[in-house]
Write a structure and sequence with these properties.
By secondary structure, the chain is α/β, with parallel strands linked by helices. The protein has eight helices and 13 strands. Strands 1, 2, 3, 4, 5, 6, 7 and 8 form an eight-stranded mixed β-sheet that branches. It is globular.
Length: 263
């Protein structure tokens, strides 16, 4: 896989569908880039995918739900792999409001999104989707200050934004299929990229942030950068707790990149 690619959408819980794509990281592997549709009474889209696969993303979204039916679009944070198709989707979803934080609103506003389409929600606050309460949470790791995950209190599903992600050897459908050592190494590598500050934090304080999530006892963990994960909470929590020992990532320089491109 040499370019970002969209895969077929798939049900990951009884009422959640994952819109699956992957981006190649030359020399390292591939990174999942997931968005999700929660089929609640007031339907919600979590993140909007990459602009580089816009046509395919919109096709998959339309196959899952009529965008006109969307009530909410949750932007976990304003990186382009999460924000890439927001404007295109808003044009097809006139009734949807964008959930973010104040800092997120400032970043999204740079794309011309008007304030009347924004709904601010901070960690610890909840949103009623008509048939369930969604709790905003702070994931243990992040690469943007506005990052907010969400916990579906009806199904026990945690949407963890970038946390618990991993760089993989190849696309996979379920995290259970990943060799445990590869999952650990790929998770540590991703954490070193996405949260380079880990090496300077107090490990005990970091473990407390993980404990805040583990105490929620999620039934399913849906990371933006990992296949659906069920039954491996302890593994994911332990892997992340160990990640503060991973040296901060330093990427290839131009010479190394050119060698990769030739290879």
């Amino acid at each position: 896989m040499n370019t970002p690619s969209m895969f077929e959408s798939r049900k990951v819980t009884t009422d959640t569908t994952s819109l699956v794509s992957y981006i190649p990281l030359p020399g390292f592997g591939v990174l999942p880039v997931n968005a999700f549709v929660i089929h609640s009474k007031e339907p919600m889209l979590v993140d909007t995918g990459m602009a580089s696969v816009r046509k395919e993303f919109l096709q998959e979204l339309r196959s899952v739900i009529d965008p006109n039916e969307l009530s909410w679009i949750w932007i976990t944070h304003a990186d382009m792999d999460h924000l890439g198709n927001l404007e295109a989707i808003l044009a097809e979803a006139p009734n949807a409001r964008v959930i973010t934080t104040y800092i997120g609103m400032a970043k999204i506003g740079l794309q011309g999104i008007t304030l009347d389409r924004v709904f601010l929600l901070n960690p610890g606050q909840t949103l009623d989707l008509g048939d369930r309460e969604i709790l905003a949470v702070s994931p243990p790791t992040f690469d943007a200050p506005e990052t907010t995950g969400l916990f579906d209190q009806k199904t026990g599903t945690l949407f963890s934004a970038d946390s618990f992600g991993a760089i993989l050897e190849k696309p996979m459908e379920n995290a259970l299929e990943i060799n445990p050592q590869n999952l650990r190494d790929g998770g540590h590598l991703w954490a070193s990229i996405d949260a380079p500050w880990l090496g300077i934090v107090d490990p005990k304080q970091f473990e407390k942030t993980i404990l805040n999530i583990s105490n929620m006892k999620p039934e399913v963990i849906l990371s933006s950068h990992l296949p659906v994960a069920t039954g491996i909470n302890t593994t994911l929590f332990d892997n992340l707790a160990e990640a503060y020992n991973t040296p901060g990532f330093v990427g290839p320089d131009q010479q190394a990149l050119e060698k990769m491109m030739v290879a």
